[in-house]
Write a structure and sequence with these properties.
The structure is a homodimer.
Chain A lengths: L2 H5 L12 E6 L3 H12 L1 H8 L3 E7 L17 E2 L2 H6 L5 E4 L7 H10 L3 E4 L2 H18 L3 E2 L11 H7 L5 E7 L2 H13 L3 H10 L8 H4 L2 H15 L9 E2 L7 H9 L2 E13 L5 E13 L11 E8 L3 E8 L3 H21 L21 E11 L4 H11 L4 E9 L2 E8 L2 E2 H12 L4 E10 L4
Parallel strand pairs in A: 1-2, 1-4, 2-3, 4-5, 5-6, 8-10, 10-17
Antiparallel strand pairs in A: 7-9, 7-11, 9-10, 11-12, 13-15, 13-16, 13-17, 14-15
Chain lengths: ~450, ~450
């Protein structure tokens, strides 16, 4: 125990000083930071929990890598993660390895054995969260995963525990820092996607292979986790409609600005009736224009933010760092303290809430709005012909702007909300009109723009 | 149970169908909304908790007031709040009356008897939270008060439970919707305080007697609650330095804008060394200039937001509706579900964490920055004389702007951070200089402007 804890006296509510024993799976950026924080804040953590935390093993892929500066006994490193998880003297398992396997095997084993599990593994939770939740139920064990979405931002606990007296109707998030950095840079400098990506890579905001970020896979996994919590239903990554942001051009950003908007890669989860009128959820990730007046528009740099709408609470937003070793470790530590307190008190955290069993409706049934930029012939009757296509697909037009240039003209059309399938069919039909020379861009519009 | 719950089947984790019995103290704006939500969302709440909630009594000041449209049996109303609290068939007490007494007596009684208490009573928590926390410890009972600060925004649970693995260094909040509405209006329209207050009153954002809001009493109570949670120490309303915002003029707002800033009424709680180097906390409420680039600057209308800085998590912000019957009821409902789940599981929520016992340092020792607007004689040597006063009080000047007008001139000085006492002494000394004709305004500056 550090001197700080000694100075502040014995914790008030508990005198149990038997340590809680942690197994750490993974010792990369986040894992190292978890070790450092557990060491540096030992006194405070002991006072808050009522007992000290002790690392009893750290599973790594290869021994012998230089980890000399970490405040942990080097003898605790092992390459046998499964063996570590199975040890009787482990109370809490912290997984910061990522990926589906072997992480799933380790965590299922730990949970079934009644060990508390803290994981930052968004891919596993989004692909097969059911395996973990079921194992947690079998073992009557705690499963916490605050770090899996939006890094340091306390978001999942509020959704799980603060808003459970309310009815969440919509969650709109900027949950990928890399793409937000790129889009913020495109907005402020007028750069194109490639140029902005290059800058992000140089500054360490984008990985050498940025596919998971720019194609929206990372955001889709987080969308599935958020939708599951918000709507008390099981939603997996496969349920999420996903469109990346590599197609967003400098021209799109300029068009957005003309409308008083910026473009963000959004994850959107909402509940509402499907085409047959049954309550269902729609979960999607795609770039979209949002007005500058929307709180999400001001989320710059690599920050994350999640905007939540609920019947009684109204509009809420949670903002902070979505990635990075230290912010992610903050979320992991918060979960460790919660799990440790629960073990000492003989409690269990609220378990998975999936009673609502809401089905996921396809993207075609999601109500969206389109911003369509057309190059058309500049002759009488063009607007009538174009408007006729929208009418045929039962899409109502909100605004049209027309600007002539010699013999051709530009039409910028923003629709009212309509089923995405109708909007997509409208675009397809427009592309077949003779008078339409090209469809310069199509972007969805969110946030009441 | 509603048809929705019936449709979604039996809750997965619990089959205990014995209702949890609620006593509601108060039936005004928030209380009525709590009753309505408990009724409308009964099916969902039962599924989330594992047992139904049942209101067994509602204490009001006077019977006979028309409450006919509320979905609750009129026979449940009583004027005997203490009698209701003492009943053996009450599991959870929800207090939305406000004020110190008799609320304190009722809640202490309930907690000592082991009943779970949910309260929105910021004044009581800030003045004598110790009485409630001690009673909760005595009765081994849950005490939840999410609705007491920032209405619907899930803020206290994140501070209590998500960031307890981290070290919070600073909390900066806009926690009073009335004053934020007034200041946002002054910023956007150029109106003066009185005019903006009048508008706020007409629109229902300000009460007939706005003293508690505009003089910062409401914000100070919330600051005490936030500081206690953030720093694991007991901080009361009396510890909070408080300066209202009635002195903010249209001219101040114009000066702020020239600096790229707006003015907000902020509550600020931070930890740091006192003058003797001992770790302590500073808690204050006052108007301050913050740069438009700060996330809090964009919080308009009557919205609330709280900006949290922590060692590992970095910068976080929580945003939403801070007041109103329905948003406040959302927070109360969230606490009811948590308390109800705990009772069913035989758990107890994390109790008060005050192990750090950090002392509160006086405002004079808080490090702040000043923006000072002086009318001075326009003659050689004026700046040297003025700068000499700052140097004498060991206050470092960050920027000076001078603009001449015939025979007098205007000096706008922004300081670096210095102990507030030194800054106050500097202003006092300046007022005594012959060459200083008047001190047009003095405002603190926050947020790195």
């Amino acid at each position: 125990m550090s001197s700080e804890s000694a100075r502040s006296g014995k914790p008030r509510n508990r005198s149990d000083e038997k340590p809680l024993r942690l197994a750490l799976l993974g010792c990369g950026t986040v894992g190292s930071e978890v070790i450092r924080l557990l060491h540096d804040q030992a006194g405070d953590l002991t006072a808050r929990i009522g007992a000290p935390l002790e690392i009893v093993g750290v599973a790594v892929r290869r021994l012998g890598r230089a980890r000399g500066d970490l405040p942990v006994d080097p003898d605790l490193f092992t390459t046998d993660a499964l063996g570590l998880v199975k040890r009787d003297d482990v109370d809490v398992v912290v997984e910061v390895v990522g990926g589906i396997e072997p992480a799933r095997t380790w965590l299922v084993e730990a949970l079934r054995a009644g060990k508390s599990v803290i994981t930052a593994n968004k891919a596993l939770l989004a692909e097969d969260g059911a395996a973990l939740h079921d194992a947690a139920a079998d073992g009557n064990a705690d499963l916490y995963y605050e770090a899996s979405v939006a890094g340091a931002i306390p978001l999942l606990r509020p959704l799980r525990e603060s808003l459970h007296g309310d009815r969440v109707t919509r969650v709109t998030g900027i949950v990928n820092g890399t793409t937000n950095f790129i889009l913020s840079s495109m907005d402020s400098t007028g750069a194109g996607f490639s140029e902005a990506l290059e800058e992000a890579t140089e500054l360490g905001y984008a990985e050498a292979d940025p596919t998971a970020d720019v194609e929206g896979f990372d955001a889709a996994a987080k969308a599935a986790i958020l939708a599951s919590l918000a709507f008390h239903s099981r939603v997996t990554a496969a349920d999420v409609f996903r469109e990346g942001m590599t197609g967003v051009t400098a021209g799109d950003m300029a068009s957005a600005k003309e409308m008083g908007c910026t473009i963000k890669l959004l994850c959107i989860a909402e509940r509402g009736p499907d085409s047959a009128g049954h309550e269902s959820v729609s979960v999607r990730v795609h770039p979209a224009m949002i007005p500058y007046s929307h709180p999400l528009a001001g989320v710059g740099d690599a920050f994350n933010a999640v905007f939540v709408e609920a019947d009684a609470a109204g509009q809420l937003m949670f903002y902070g760092r979505g990635a990075g070793g230290t912010p992610t470790a903050s979320a992991v530590l918060g979960d460790i303290v919660a799990a440790a307190r629960n073990r000492l008190g003989g409690f269990r955290a609220p378990s998975e809430s999936n009673y609502a069993h809401l089905p996921v409706r396809p993207i075609g049934e999601a109500v969206t709005r389109y911003h369509i930029n057309l190059d058309v012939d500049d002759k009488p009757g063009v607007l009538a012909a174009v408007a006729g296509v929208f009418a045929k697909h039962e899409v109502s037009i909100a605004t049209v702007r027309q600007s002539g240039r010699e013999d051709d003209a530009k039409l910028v059309i923003v629709t009212h909300g309509a089923p995405d399938a109708n909007l997509a069919a409208t675009v397809e039909s427009l592309s077949q009109l003779d008078i339409v020379r090209s469809i310069a861009s199509v972007l969805r519009v969110e946030g009441g723009a």
